[in-house]
Each structure stands twice: as C-alpha cells, then as structure tokens.
Amino acid sequence: MMQPKKVDDFMMWVSTWATEAHPPLFAYLAVVRNDEWVLIKGMLYLNLVSKIASVPDEAVIGDVRAGFYTIDGGKDGLLDFCGQLVEGKFTIGDHGVIMVGPGGTLQDIVVDAPTQSTGTDQTRNVVSTLLGAMHGQNLGAQFSWLLRAGDPPFDSMEDLASAYSLGPITDVSTIDVVALIAAFVDARSVVSDTQANIAVKVLNGFDPTAVRVGYRTFSAKGVSKRGCLASDQFDWSEEQDGQIGRASFEVNQAAVVQAYATYSGRTQQQWWFQDPKGTFNPRRVVYETHDPGLTKLKEWLHPEERRKGRSTDYEIGISVLGWLLGCSSLHLDRTRGLSDGPDVLLTSPEGLVLVECTTGSFGTDKLAELIDRRRIARQRLLASGHFGTPVQCIIASTVAESEATVERQAAIQHGVVFIGRESVDKLVERTVQVPNTAQLFRELLGAIKAERNV
Fold first, then answer.
1. What is the rounded distance in angstroms from the CA atom of residue 2 to the CA atom of residue 81?
2. According to CATH, what is the number of the domain 183-274?
3. Which residues, in sequence order, are bridge partners of residue 328?
4. Is the pTM here over 0.85, yes or no?
5. pLDDT interval class at 117 (50, 70, 90)
C-alpha cells in the first residue's frame, strides 16, 4: 500500500502549484486490453498557459488511444483527479484507465523529482512522478505497423508519444506531473552605474508572497556580493498577465548580476543582467563599435518582424552570433554559389558544428540533408587524418520551440540539436559573458542526452 505521507505530500504539492488561471491538461497514451485502458504514459500539466499541437485532441488507432484531456472544475476538479491518480485508477471522460495490477497500488510517488539538466539551463520546470505497475505491452513492431495505418499516421509508439509531448515511454505505467514556471526574473532588469534594478514577474494565479530572488554579483575580480530579496522587499504592481515586483540594491561599477527566481522554495529560473553600456566579452565590445546595442544583429535574427526579412539575413545573424560566442564562424552564402553545404560552419578547439538555418518549420528532407552533410564531413576529416575532431549539428529556427515539439524530438533522435527563437535570444544575452566554447560544446552534448531521456 502506498505510504499515506507520500500521498499527502503529493496532494499538497499539487495544491501549491495549481492555479485557477490556467486549466490543467492531461496528455495520455494507453492501450485497450480486456475492455480496460491500460496506461503506457501520462503527462499532467498543472498550469499550462496554452496548448499548441499539430495532432488531434484524440487519436484512436486500433487498440491504441492517445490524446489531450482538459480537467474541468478548477482547483477542486484537479485535486479530485489527482486523488484518483494516486489510487492508480482514474477516468478520462467515460473511460476507466488503470496503471496498477489487480488489487495493487502505485510503486512510488516522487515529489519534485530531479529533472535532467545541464545546470546551465535558464529555467527549470518542477516535476513529480507517479510510478505504477509494468504495463506488460510489447511496444515494438506490432504497434508500429498498426500506427502507420492511422489518420494521421505515426511511425511508432515513440513517435506517437512524442507527438503528444509525453517524452520517453518505458515498461512501467508512468505519469509525470509538471508545474510550469510560475515566477521569473524579467528582462527589464538592468544595472545602472552602481545600482542593480531587478524586476521579477509572477504569473496570474500565483502568490507573490511565495517569491524570493537570490543573486550573485560579478566584477572583473569575480564574485563580489551575494544576497536574497524577500517578497516584501519588492514594490508590486499589476500587469495583464501577472504581477511585477521591482527592487534595487548597490553593486560595483560595471557589475554583472546573476539572479535566481524562487517560488515556494523551488528555483524556477536563473537570469543574467548588467549595465547595457558594459560587457566582459571583448568580441562584443569590438562588434558593438559597428552595431551599437546589437540592433542590426537582433533584426537579422528576427527576420519575420521585418517587412523584407530574408533567410540570408538570419544566416548572417547566426554566423555573427557564433563568432560573438567565441567560435570561428563562416557563412556559406547560397547566393554566392555555395549551395552544397550547411548555412554556417562554426569551429573551436572542441570541434566543428554544422548549422542549418530556417525561417520556418523544417521537414524530414532538411533534417536528412543535414545528417548526410555531417556524415560527409566526418568521412573527409577521417580521410585527411583528423581522427579526433568531433562534428556536431544544429538546426537554428525562428520558430518558437513550443511550436516545434515534434520537429525538435525528430532532430534529437538523430543527434541534432534544435534551437528555436527562445534559445537564440538566450544566446544573444549570453554574449555579455567571456566566451567559453568548451562549455558551449558540453551543453550541446548535454542537450542531446537530456532530451533523449525526457
């Protein structure tokens, strides 16, 4: 029998992270067996702001069921649903779903489970996990051929799980309960001379009194100050999508601030900000002589915001960004006849990166072409005696990552990193720091490993 304390801790955790502002959404994958739905994998989003998916709300293919289920009834409705989950038996509409054997209980409930992270991520979602029994389904070829006949078709159970944002599937019925970010340090935070002006945003439905912001300040000699700001040290005001708190504290001249937004004792985000007039990156100092405030670079990286945005502008922007981050960068401009290679080549002591740029979503043809270019590059390096040169691949897109879940998963399965609009913007912010290509390469490899295990 599941320990009552674990159940109580989980229900308290759900109550903390639930909000009336955003209806909870349950994504699921199940197989019909003996007139029952046996859960393969579930994902419960407690506070999803919006759902963007390219698949129907429900897919029924033979005995396979997958879909999205909105939980009605506000916070009470969510708590009732979670009360069913901890029993290992619950309902989706009119259908009963089981994740335990006859007379059994959950294997375990892990509250605030550790998540895959490189430690350098900007944000961290808070996750709890419910582990049921082994579902006893062989998820291999027999299901793959069934799913390929669907409308729309799916290539495998893994492809179906990816399409419904469920992450990896195992031989154990599992539900991940995800609390998306509730509070974050706002981009309006800035250092002005010797004063750090910090802004923290709390989304609608969450309690500003549960917010705390920790910080470290850096000068040329390293960390110079550490501290924490409690909720009552901020001046709060309302905005359309939440509340914004503002506070100030003294820092050294030309300091950089690293801030950590915490909600209900859980770190939500880390954020860097500084005086826009200063930077520790000598490459950026020189570049801004010609492009003050990176105005032109930001235009290149957001061509969809300009009436005459061109794909080559985005390629140039990615090339410049790679150089600012410490790499040697080469733009292979198709308009100059260089059409057989990737759009951008980045090199550093740690290896070679082939970057394919796209101002929209990408299809399997573009992905296959990039993978083939990586194969050719590796073969030519080996033929030339360069046995120890790693070759990595990136697809850089102007599309938001939240709108490209399927494409990102497809890329990661082939060892290709997908960076969308959010990640590109974060890399631009990172150019204030001293370039560290070794760390960038570690993060590339870490992103591939982490997403393959999500």
1. 17
2. 2.60.40.10
3. 347
4. no
5. low
